[in-house]
Prior knowledge:
Strand content: under 5%
Radius of gyration: 21 Å
Shape: elongated
Distance between the termini: 21 Å
Number of strands: 0
Number of helices: 5
Order of helices and strands: HHHHH
Amino acid sequence: RWLKVVSMLIIYNSRAALVAMLVTAIALVPTWWSHVPGCKSDHLVLHQRFMVVGICHGVHLLFLCFWQRFRSLLFTPQFAFLDKLCIAQSPELADLK
């Protein structure tokens, strides 16, 4: 069941998730190359770069999971009916029809 849900998330939301991640990455480019004045250690710069990568991954995951909800605020969301997700496919339960 989870494989079907994840497949539908990828089919319907992956393009929006990619665009959102790219926009976030472009917006955070200045922080990637910024230098912290007075900092003699590269640990803070490295930590800052890991935060940028983490934020981009988080935005991608957020849009991948919730793009249809965000879209419903401005446009009509896309719906798909999954009969295999809703109707029992096992032979034991097929006799209950």
